Amino acid sequence: MAKKEKEEVTLQEQTKETTVEFLASLAGVLVTGLFIITFIVQAFEIPSSSMENTLLIGDHVFVNREQFAPATRWLGPLMPYRNIQHGDIVVFLSPAEHGLFVVKRIIGIPGDRIHLRDDVVYRNGQKLEEPYVQHKADPNDAGDEERRPYRANFPAVTPSIRDNLAPDWQLDLPAHIEGGDLVVPANSYFAMGDNRDVSYDSRYWGFIPRPNVIGRPMFIYWSFLTPPDQYQMTAWSDRFGFLTHIIIHFFDETRWSRTLRIVR
């Protein structure tokens, strides 16, 4: 009888240890996940068509926040830190609109000389081969032809009111032009969208300060057909209405072919 009671006590202790071990493991997973979400990756939704066809409106991506960060002693051996390079797609805080997250492709790094001729980008005198570039101007935009000379021949053409330059950039732009080229200053980057005809980018608001860079999109984890103006719908009723739409059309309007697609 005593032996049976001893076995029951041992079984209860093992069960308690197993429960404690499970909870400890679960806590470890949650803490690790929270750490990764807080410090290493960030979810981001593509709001506009400026990066088509690389990134579409409604693409949801994970952004690596650490890759372009200053290397730290304790994470350095684990993280693939590196400097921002030509062609990198980056998420950053807009220099022109406070609190707005933007995604563009890096065209110029500090010291580069940039100009466009008839929509072709030249960097340091060399014509760039850019297979990702699209030209999808809105055919219903009556002012598009008036804006085309500036965006296609930057910075040689003097901007007009229709070009809608950020006020600070319009004043600062001439100071960075040398011999027909725009010279990228230290700790700054020149970026453009892949969909060049509709991209509101460095041609219109200037350089990206280094501290504004958030990180690099890694891959698309979900893509859903989304109206072009959805990001401007900030009212609670609009958000609730679109959430309902997602629930109803999750399977037929999710772009499954884009799931887990690497961003480059």
Task: Explain this structure.
The protein is of the alpha+beta class. The protein has one domain: Umud Fragment, subunit A (Ribbon), CATH 2.10.109.10. It has helices spanning 2-40, 144-152, 167-172, 202-205, 236-253, and strands spanning 41-45, 59-64, 89-93, 101-108, 113-117, 120-123, 126-127, 177-178, 181-183, 188-192, 208-209, 213-223. The strands form two sheets. It has a seven-stranded antiparallel beta sheet with strand order 1-2-12-3-4-10-11. A hairpin with a 7-residue loop joins strand 3 (89-93) and strand 4 (101-108). The longest helix has 39 residues, at 2-40. It is globular and about 70 Å long. 22% of the residues are buried.
**Tally of strands:** 12
Q: Specify the CATH class.
A: Mainly Beta
Mean residue pLDDT: 85
Here the CATH topology equals Umud Fragment, subunit A
Strand order in the largest sheet: 1-2-12-3-4-10-11
Beta-strand content estimate: 15-25%
Q: Which sequence of SSEs, written as H and E, runs from N to C?
A: HEEEEEEEHHEEEHEEH
CATH architecture title? Ribbon
CATH superfamily: Umud Fragment, subunit A
How far apart are the termini?
70 Å
Total DSSP helices: 5
Uncertain runs with pLDDT below 50, 5 residues or more? 28-38
**Overall 3D shape:** globular
Key features of this structure:
264 residues, alpha+beta, Umud Fragment, subunit A, 7-stranded antiparallel β-sheet, 5-stranded antiparallel β-sheet, 5 helices, 12 strands, 22% strand
